[in-house]
Amino acid sequence: MSVVPVRNASFQAAVVLLAVFLCGFLVWTASADTAAPRTHAGPRPTQDDAGQPPEVEGSFEGVTTPPTAQPPAATPGPKVPTLLQSKTGRTDPGKWVALTFDDGPWNTYTPQVLGILKQYGIKATFCVVGNQAKALPGQIREIVAQGHTLCNHTMSHDTEMPTRTPEEMRAQMQQTLDAIHAAVPGVPVPWYRAPGGMWSVQVQEVAASLEMRSLGWTVDTLDWRKPGVDKMMQTVHSQLGPGGVILMHDGGGDRTQSVECLRRLIPELLAQGYQFTVPV
Ligand SMILES: [Zn+2]
Is residue 187 part of a domain? Predict the structure, then answer.
């Protein structure tokens, strides 16, 4: 009869030990989590970030990266945290979509894009190249005057940003900000977008240090390849859903097809019930 209480005592001791171990583990886990550095207060990454295809623009003047180049992020390895926002960020009800135009400002095409947007009363985001902003400050002023949002796309459309030092990254971004502000002093530039889709966590952190959030996309029209307007429309049909961000180009080369695509795209999306927004 005396065996049972001894067994109970052993069992209770084991339970107490297990509880102490679990508490210790939980405290350790919580402290490890809170000790993790928080370098950015931006939005949480969406699922689209992981599957986002790289943008590789082959036709921008002065860029020699071949169209087949792959970004470092495409190589296998541990998944790194991302500060990248790829969707509109709108959480209020609505079928939202955002138009974004890269590599401008550009003679001919930027005014045409602005004209179409104005016709429909749509606000978009322009990811401008610093050297282009410096050369065409009047177009930066027009983009701002029409109420569009600006995004920093580096000074020289540097598609190898992840290989640069933090100082070089910062210089590419700061010089672009300076070129924009020479045209329109003090205008907000809330976004950064990596040329060629060459993202890295460090690039995003440097952008964040300059108070810019990183802007990706969910629909890549690949318009810079000039695939034909029908093909570009098919791409949008297959990739766009509510909250989507569409990537197009108003600069970097001949953008006749991009402009023509935009003329068809806007009325079609409006007919489908989409509302246009800038990313928030
Ligand atoms: Zn670009």
Answer: yes
254 among known catalytic residues: no
Let me know whether 15 and 57 are in one domain: no
Within this chain, do residues 179 and 217 fall inside the same structural domain, yes or no? yes
| Residue-number span of the structural domain to which 18 is assigned | 1-38
**Taking the alpha carbons of 126, 129, 133, 139 in that order, is the dihedral positive or negative?**
negative
Question: What would the two tokens of residue 177 be?
Answer: 């900000």
Q: For 196-207, how does the pLDDT look when each residue is reduced to its tens digit (9 = 90+)? A: 999 999 999 999
Number of alpha helices (DSSP H) and beta strands (DSSP E) in the chain: 9, 9
- Catalytic, 157? Answer no
Task: Please give the Cα distance from 241 to 261 (Å, whole number).
Answer: 18
Active-site annotation holder among 48, 49, 102, 158? 102
- Which residues, given as ranges, of the chain have pLDDT below 50? 1-6, 13-55, 58, 61-78, 80
Annotated catalytic residue: which of 148, 153, 157, 249? 249
Q: Are residues 111 and 222 in the same domain?
A: yes
